[in-house]
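Worked problem 6 (solution included).
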Amino acid sequence: MKDSNNIGLVNAAHPDRESWARPDDKLDLRLWLRLLTCSTLVENRLRTLMRNDFAMTLPRFDLMAQLASAPRGMKMSELSRSMMVTNGNITGIVDQLEQEGYVERQKVDTDRRSSLIRLTAEGRRKFRGMSRSYRAWVGELFEPLSEESRQQLFNLLGELKEAGRSASTPA
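Solution. The predicted structure is:
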């Protein structure tokens, strides 16, 4: 049986994206699949904890995190760019959070078509509680790695991030 989140078979020896790579495949491919698998494992765990403890989805939490760092608010296009998703995705999430009283829209005086999205007082309170838990969960997930290994991984991924940005910048 196929699992939609995995390339491999469910209940196979290694049911994850990395499982279909062969030992003789290029290191770049094997590295990418391992990175993707690790990212998915961490994200799925955080998604489950966020849903179980706060009845909140990870994308909604992520949007609130963006707004928490921008107290004056952000336009939809800014949110879309910073979260690397489409405006349509942002609109749906903002609509949900607005209905729950966690965000508000404020019209921009200079552009009647635009709104600034901001956390409400209730949204800031809710985010602070979720953020404390989120930080603790991330710490627990990386705790098995030594401090030195975490720092080395952080540095190496920083190099990969810069290489990726350079590659996507038009010449």
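Discussion: The first strand starts at residue 74 and ends at 75.
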